[in-house]
Amino acid sequence: MTEVSEWLLTALLNHGNALLGGTLFLAAFGVPLPATMMLMAAGAFTRQGVLPLEGALLSACVGAMAGDGCSYLLGRTSMKRVPRSVTGSQGWQHAAALFSVWGGWGVFVSRFLLTPVALPVNLLAGSTGYPWPRFMSAVVAGEAIWVVLFGGLGHLFAHQWEELSQLAGDAVGLLMGAVLVLGGIWALVSSRRRRPGAGR
């Protein structure tokens, strides 16, 4: 466990749900903080009577959702600084069209499963003009699952939450690796199919 993690755990014991919500807000906004670890620790602390369960759930949800919303708005406002040569390019238009179709699922899944890409997804949603109501609907559903899932694991296994947190981090890392490999294969196959004379 890093010094930052140890400091955050001590602060969580001293400052409770306000610290939990603030940490998850900053993590969703892009600050590299151990959000899942903090959530599981908070779940364990609710089991031990250190934190109130309802307050922890509310603080975690509000903090994470607010951070997602702010990072979306950051992507939206940054559009003014992106050159038109970029936003008008075929690649950008393709990404925007693809996100308009699958973006909701991307936002939803990246809240609790593919968490390392949550911030880029938020920024992409904002910069491509993905509708705010659809974005926040996916955020609310995904973050609720994340909070209940990992906070619940910490609550149920209060004495082993540190080991579970490590396992969860390893599992997400393996899953991200698999997604990147599959995405690379898909991109390679797609590019070969688009070449002139492909398939003849």
Give the termini separation.
Answer: 56 Å
Query: Helical amount among residues, as a percent range?
Result: over 70%
The Cα radius of gyration reads 19 Å
What is the N-to-C order of secondary-structure elements (H for helix, E for strand)? Answer: HHHHHHHHH
Low-confidence stretches: none
Number of helices: 9
Describe this structure in words.
With 200 residues, the protein is mostly helical. It is built from 9 helices and no strands. α3 crosses α8 (132-156), α3 (35-47) packs antiparallel against α9 and α4 (53-78) packs antiparallel against α8.
Features:
single chain; mainly alpha; 200 residues
Furnish the topology, listing elements before pairings:
Elements: H1 3-15, H2 17-28, H3 35-47, H4 53-78, H5 84-87, H6 90-112, H7 118-127, H8 132-156, H9 161-194
Helix pairs in contact: 1-2, 1-3, 2-3, 2-4, 3-8, 3-9, 4-7, 4-8, 6-7, 6-8
Q: In summary, what is this structure?
A:
Helix content is 80%, strand content 0%. With 200 residues, the chain is mainly alpha-helical.
